[in-house]
Design brief:
The chain is α+β, with helices and mostly antiparallel strands and 258 residues long. The protein has 2 domains: 64-137, no CATH class; 142-254, Double Stranded RNA Binding Domain (2-Layer Sandwich). The chain contains 7 helices and 14 strands. Strands 9, 10, 11, 12, 13 and 14 form a 6-stranded antiparallel sheet that branches. β11 (206-207) and β12 form a beta hairpin. α2 crosses α4 and α4 (144-162) packs across α6. The chain is globular. The N and C termini lie far apart (40 Å). The model has no long low-confidence stretch (mean pLDDT 90). The structure holds zinc ion (ZN). Zinc ion is lined by residues 6, 8-9, 11, 40, 42-43.
């Protein structure tokens, strides 16, 4: 594998633009990018919908945290059926529609009814004495493209820290196939961070004595752990040892076994 070969398609990389490892709409740490000699333009564009799936999954968190979208645009919630969130003159505003018929959102746009789809958000209103509460029930991690997008971030992070020549190794073919084509079954471990604030961080990968790699990073207020070994030989160990390594947190595995 020569230099200037794309880590995804293993063909000549002709990309001119750098690729943000964490989508800009979620707040990519400064400089956390791969150059165009590492990811070709075709893959950069072709895999963009995976970034979109990750952005969609975290739209609420990014909106609440006020993270600007690409090119400094205001944060927005637009890809949910029954919710619209925009930043207005007076600050952020969110409209929900829990009714079975469409209505009009605060910004005049059409607000679809609640249909119980995966992208719909269920809002529950309760009254506790004089305090009214709204709680949101937002389905998480059920989109396979989201899992591929998270795995893409993990693998890009490996290339960033340990170099593109390593990432071009054929040992990562199953990871590439999963990210590029959705082939095979791979998993993502995640847990809530203890502080619950919005911040993104990345750490150098773990390497086992046998030369297998795993990547951890924090995205919004969640911490992710992705096993990049050929046959996910790490994951069972991580599932049992994670509390020991990272503290007694409630680690979950995606996709959820049904
Ligand atoms: Zn490529």
């Amino acid at each position: 594998m020569s230099a200037d070969t794309c880590i995804w398609c293993l063909e000549h990389a002709d990309g001119m633009d750098e690729e943000h490892i964490i989508p800009e709409a979620l707040g990519c740490p400064p400089g956390f990018v791969l150059p165009g000699t590492v990811v070709c333009r075709k893959c950069n564009n072709g895999l963009a919908d995976l970034d979109g799936a990750v952005i969609d999954e975290f739209d609420f968190r990014a909106f609440m945290a006020g993270v600007p979208r690409k090119k400094g645009r205001s944060p927005v919630i637009r890809s949910r059926g029954n919710v619209v969130g925009t930043v207005e003159k007076d600050g952020p505003a969110i409209s929900f529609n829990m009714d079975p018929v469409p209505t009009t959102a605060h910004d005049g746009s059409r607000l679809a009814p609640y249909r119980g789809s995966k992208r719909d958000v269920r809002a529950k209103f309760t009254k506790d004495g004089n305090i009214a509460r709204i709680s949101f029930d937002i389905p998480f991690g059920q989109n396979r493209k989201f899992l591929r997008g998270i795995t893409k971030i993990a693998f890009s992070s490996l290339a960033y820290f340990l170099g593109a020549p390593l990432a071009r190794s054929l040992a990562f073919s199953p990871v590439r196939r999963f990210v590029r084509h959705g082939a095979g079954d791979r998993h993502v471990l995640f847990t809530s961070s203890s502080d619950n604030t919005y911040s993104n961080s990345v750490w150098p990968p773990y390497v086992s004595p046998s030369g297998d790699y795993a990547v951890t990073f924090r995205l919004t207020s969640l911490e992710f752990l992705i096993d990049l070994s050929e046959e996910e030989s790490f994951i069972a160990m991580f599932q049992t040892k994670a509390p020991e390594f990272f503290g007694e947190k409630n680690w979950c595995t995606l996709p959820v076994e049904t």
